[in-house]
Amino acid sequence: MKLFQLTILLLGTSTLSLAQETKSDFSAYKQSIPGSPLELAMVPIPAGSFTMGSPEAEKNRKPDEGPQQKVQLSAFWMSSFELSRDIFDVYFKDANTTQNSKVDAVTRPSAQYIDLTWGMGKEGGFPVNSMSQHTALMFCRWLYDKTGVFYRLPTEAEWEYACKAGSTTAYYYGDDPKQLGDYAWYKANSKNKFQKSGQKKPNAWGLYDMLGNVSEWTLDHYQENRLAELTGEPKDPRVAVNPVKYPKVLKGGGYIDEEATLRCSNRQKSDPSWNKRDPQIPKSKWWLTDAASVGIRVVRPRHQPSKEEADAFFKEILGN
Q: What is the pLDDT of residues 116-139, one digit of tens each?
């Protein structure tokens, strides 16, 4: 397993003291999306430590959620909502980018061969869906190129830390699944559709739909024994990188999932079957025909890498 080498800069670690990291300029902001009137709401996630994974006594716990590890993370911002179709479409329809290029730094995805929202909703705040991890990362690279600000997918550790928001329970609000409908769209209340973002209660750090609606990509390649390997890496765990396409880690669960999948520590892994009905040969690297409940959320490390470091990151993580 290859572990990404630019960890110190790209995951937010710096020589700043904790006092400097938490000074007043680390606050919520809105990132304007060039070429549109749209904005991406970003909320600060403070530096700190948490227990990653679930306790052995947690109901519905899976073996790959342990052993629990104490993990320390540097500060970052995370988008308050799942990425909307409206914002993604600015990238998708950008006339100044090439289409499906393997080398262009601002590539947009190939046209969808069918409507992969399946009539559930597009404009007006619905999350973007049916997208591969490659597409999610290419959006991040486009956004960086357009704004000069380095955005990326969260690591698995960052995602879980942000989701728990200081909690130690199965869900960020507690352990009772009967309350889940107040915080998430899932199998019991979604009517088999994703919904507009932001209608349910947020967690303590102002993040909406961290549980349910659409599952969210992380940077990490899936390893069943990942938590065991974190022993001795208490600060900003390195990203598990592997050039093979499957499996990658997703978190949060989606509108089709039951309550057990929406637990903060639950780990989902991508599967080739998610693209089995793709009519193209070779199968599209952009779209997932059979994963309508997969979307993304982005983060911005507080300590920004240099252009050279950011370019190296995208080259390694995307393989081109």
A: 999 999 999 999 999 999 999 999
